[in-house]
Amino acid sequence: MIIDFVFWGLMKLGELKLGELLDTPPPGLDEAIAISKVIQFLESPEYNMFTRIVFDTAPTGHTLRLLSLPDFLDASIGKILKLRQKITSATSAIKSVFGKEDNQPDAADKLERLRERMVKVRELFRDTESTEFVIVTIPTVMAVSESSRLSASLKKESVPVKRLVVNQILPPSSSDCKFRSIKRKDQMRALDMIREDSELSGLTLMEAPLVDMEIRGVPVLRFLGDIIWK
Questions:
Q1: pTM of the model
Q2: DSSP letters of 145-212?
Q3: Which CATH number belongs to the domain containing residue 158 in this structure?
Q4: pLDDT of 43-102, one tens digit each?
Q5: From CA 180, how far away is CA 171, in angstroms rounded?
Q6: Cβ within 8 Å of residue 173, ≥6 positions away
Q7: Rounded to 5 degrees, what are φ and ψ at 197?
Q8: What's the total number of domains in the chain?
Q9: How confident is the model at residue 1 (pLDDT cuts 50, 70, 90)?
Q10: What percent of the chain lies above the pLDDT cut of 90?
């Protein structure tokens, strides 16, 4: 009776579907898989015409989690594959007796390909020759503090970061608008904070002005780019 129960248990384990282990994927998995698509871009002749690929990442917390995902998924998928290998080895003899074949031969292959891409993404994140993380912030004390923490975390992860873009800066004006004057003083205080911050002061500071239109579309992007990269 005990032997029958063990055989039944092994048979059920042998039917384990790897997809079921990923029914509740970790937060940020979608972003990680999207970024892994970059590897396909880099390896495809179709995209040789492009000199740069730009990703507009999510807010700081999501971005830091995203940067750690390749390591997490590499380890997690490795464990899943090892588990499946052990289960397969334990049940292969029993399956052969019952004449039951494994009907999901490519599940492990798909996970292995995903793991390999994650390894390449991890290497890409840290490649100083081909990758640069540009921090974009706004001139407020809270945003600057968050950017400082982000910069420290990026350096800890060995992600190359050299430049900091401060967006929505009010240009000087002779207007006597009190609100505008107070707002600009606050922004200048935030810029001074950047210059004195141990994490951010070493980055190249690039200032982007507040404009009277939504930055969307190639012409407007070129317009703003000419201002920032002048």
A1: 0.70
A2: HHHHHHHHHHHHTT----EEEEEEEPPP-----HHHHHHHHHHHHHHHHHHH-TTTTTSEEEEEE--S
A3: 3.40.50.300
A4: 788 877 888 878 787 777 767 777 776 666 666 666 666 666 666 665 665 555 555 555
A5: 10
A6: 180, 184
A7: -75, 135
A8: 2
A9: very low
A10: 29
Does residue 205 have a pLDDT over 60? yes
| C-alpha span between 157 and 123 (Å, rounded) | 11
Range of the domain at 187: 135-228
Clarify whether residues 96 and 184 are in a common domain. Answer: no
Query: Which residues, 6 or more positions from 29, have their beta carbon under 8 angstroms from its beta carbon?
Result: 69, 73
Q: In sequence order, which residues have a C-beta less than 8 Å from that of residue 227 and are 6 or more positions away?
A: 208, 209
Give the tokens for residue 191: 């810029």
Measured distance CA(62)–CA(57) in Å, rounded: 8
Residues 86 and 140 in one domain: no
DSSP 91: H
**Which among 107, 125, 143 is the end of a domain?**
125
Q: Are residues 97 and 149 in the same domain?
A: no
